[in-house]
Design a protein that fits this description.
This protein is of the alpha+beta class. A hairpin with a 5-residue loop joins strand 4 and strand 5. Helix 2 packs antiparallel against helix 3. The chain is elongated. It binds zinc ion. The site of zinc ion (ZN) has 10 residues, from loops.
């Protein structure tokens, strides 16, 4: 667990680069994804577990600072964020590890199927 003050600091730094995030509760913050620029906020960051991912593109990571690095945030800020989580001693639980899901070879992403009628509906979802 990180303290509320530290959490507010991390949140503040993310809001600077990603815009005002929407708090979904349970430390989950939702942002517009800077990697795919989807028109809906599909990038989700967890301030406790530090895991972040975009539900549209493949952007994801296990640490908040890796997200900040990708967004060219000042090194001082990244250092401070790393320190906050280091001091909080966050240790991932075994079942908390990232699990890679293998998709069948015939799987196609929705972007490969733009010609089908469901595409627009699904994409706008
Ligand atoms: Zn994305």
């Amino acid at each position: 667990m990180i303290s509320e003050i530290d959490k507010q600091y991390v949140l503040g730094q993310m809001n600077v680069v990603l815009g005002e995030g929407r708090n979904l509760g349970n430390s989950e913050i939702q942002y517009y994804c800077p990697f795919c620029s989807h028109h809906k906020p599909k990038l989700q960051v967890n301030l406790e577990s530090q895991k972040w991912r975009c539900w549209v593109c493949s952007a994801r990571g296990k640490k908040v600072h890796s997200l900040l690095k990708k967004l060219s945030v000042d090194y001082d800020v990244i250092q401070k964020v790393m320190k906050i989580y280091d001091e909080a001693g966050y240790v991932p639980k075994a079942d908390d590890e990232f699990v890679e899901i293998r998709l069948p070879s015939e799987y196609k992403t929705i972007l490969d199927n733009q010609h089908i009628i469901e595409f627009r509906v699904a994409y706008n979802y």
